[in-house]
Fold this protein.
Amino acid sequence: MNRTAISRHCILLLLATTCGAAGAQGTGNPAMPCFRALVEDARFASLRGKVALGGALDELNSLTSSADRPTPLERVALGEWKSARDSCHRLEIPYFATRDTQIQALARDYFAAVQALIVELQGGKLSYGDFGRRRLDLYEKANLRFEEVRRSILPSKPGTRQPPGTKQPIQ
């Protein structure tokens, strides 16, 4: 499996299996529809094709080369996007409160780091490509960390081998 596919599936797997599995708890992250809706929100039309409004991985990967910086109109839209992301994030706080404390911290830190990048982009300190590359880097690092935590809190399936260099959990 390639790195992109691993990253994409890693966060979904982690959120689905942490603390007794989301299926057992009944629902997934309630903020996801909110984040996805940002893609079609008319307030952010000037940002489409410049930032991954809903955070889709394919879009994150494709928006890393522009040297353009935000125009004054786009800076206003970036501020509104950041506020809308805050509203979506508030929907997921109770969801993450039911997760492992490490997962809560990782999710909170990742969200805050992306919000800080938006502030840098809005202030003209980053080009759209710089923002895209740094956001993708944050995403990949967060996914690796989520996977490490997931492995540390979930027992291995009987008969499966651990990757070389990893330790078996103490029983």
